[in-house]
Amino acid sequence: MKGELLRRLFEGDPEERRIAAEDLVEYGDEETIRALFRAMVTDKNRGVKEACAESLKQIGGELVMREAANLLNGPDPLARALCLEILASFGEKAIPLLMPLLKSPDYNDRKYALDALALIGGKRAMDLILGMTGDPEPNVKYTAVEYLSPMPPDSKITEALKGLLEGAEDEYGISTICQVVRSRREKELLPVLLKKVKGVEDPFIKHWLYKAIVVLDGEEHIKEALENALRIDAVEDVLKDIILAKGEIPEGVKSFIRDKGIKVKDQLLEEAL
Q1: What residue spans of 168-264 are helical by DSSP H?
Q2: How far is it, in rounded angstroms, from Cα 227 to Cα 167?
Q3: Which long-range contacts (CB under 8 A, 24 or more apart) does 40-48 make?
Q4: DSSP 43
Q5: Backbone angles phi, psi at 96, to 5 degrees
Q6: In whole angstroms, what is the distance from residue 138 CA to residue 161 CA?
Q7: Contact status, residue 256 vs residue 265, Cβ threshold 8 Å
Q8: pLDDT in tens for each of the 273 residues of the chain?
Q9: In a 10 Å sphere around its CB, with 0-12 CB exposed, 13-18 middle and 19+ buried, how is residue 49 labelled?
């Protein structure tokens, strides 16, 4: 029976291949596991790929974890995503297999390992992600920063974000850090943001800093944020942040908008004004 299922996994029509992948869950031997991984990588049908991944998750075991980790840097985006799901299904048990990838000279390997850690979650994963915010490759560093966003309050994260914010100079880095600071409501970083925005000339970089300032509490800096936003046609963006922070647009801001003759296109903003 297993031999027939393996044949159908590669030779049948899409529905036959999908059913074969599902039925092979009954066999947890090495041949079956490797066949399911091969089909997951090479098959062009999404349903077949997903059925292979689901069976592999149910089979479990060391070989499944190891093969999923080995395929994280494969060329097929869906297969990579499914490998991430497979690893995440093992929880912290999968972390030792990700450690070599975090130290790989290939930054793509390091980034894929971060993706897996983010799905796994938990304190151990958080500590590893936090450590990767010091990676020399911006794509890895700021991927790690983004993954800090949903984590619970922690002084180590606040301190890391402070250091990153003080050292960042490019728009990509500052925008990423500011978005995380906003989402986490890191109010302790308001003084750092205010100092940073005073030392920056680029209005686009200022915009990201002001977005975080407005959300964190900087009521007295709202008009500064709007003045800067006028320079880059981003007033509506700041108005949305004001609503996010306060639930409404203060009268002083409404007066500013009227005095400047600013017209908004967003219907909800227009009603709020």
Answers
A1: 171-184, 190-198, 203-216, 222-231, 235-246, 251-260
A2: 26
A3: 40/79, 40/82, 41/71, 41/74, 41/76, 41/79, 43/17, 45/14, 45/17, 45/18, 46/78, 47/14, 47/18, 48/14, 48/17, 48/18, 48/21
A4: -
A5: -55, -30
A6: 15
A7: no
A8: 888 999 999 998 999 999 999 999 999 899 999 999 999 999 999 999 999 999 999 999 999 999 999 998 888 999 999 999 999 999 999 999 999 999 999 999 999 999 999 999 999 999 999 999 999 999 999 999 999 999 999 999 999 999 999 999 999 999 999 999 999 999 999 999 999 999 999 999 999 999 999 999 767 888 899 999 999 999 889 888 888 888 888 888 888 888 888 888 878 777 777
A9: buried
Please give the structure tokens belonging to residue 271: 């009603």
Residues in CB range of 29: below 8 A, 6 or more apart:
none
Residue 68 token pair: 């999923």
- Give the global pTM: 0.83
Residue 263 φ then ψ, to 5°: -110, 130
- Inter-residue contact 55 to 22 (CB < 8 Å): yes
- Long-range (24+ apart) CB contacts under 8 A made by 153-160 are 153/184, 154/126, 156/130, 157/130, 157/184, 158/186, 158/188, 158/189, 160/130, 160/133
Both tokens of 183, joined, read: 């989402």
Q: Which two tokens stand for residue 27?
A: 């066999």
Contact 140, 118 (CB under 8 A): no
Query: What is the full DSSP assignment across 91-142?
Result: GGGGHHHHHHHHT-SSHHHHHHHHHHHHHH-SHHHHHHHHHGGG-SSHHHHH
Question: What's the rounded Cα separation, in Å, for the pair 169 and 207?
Answer: 14
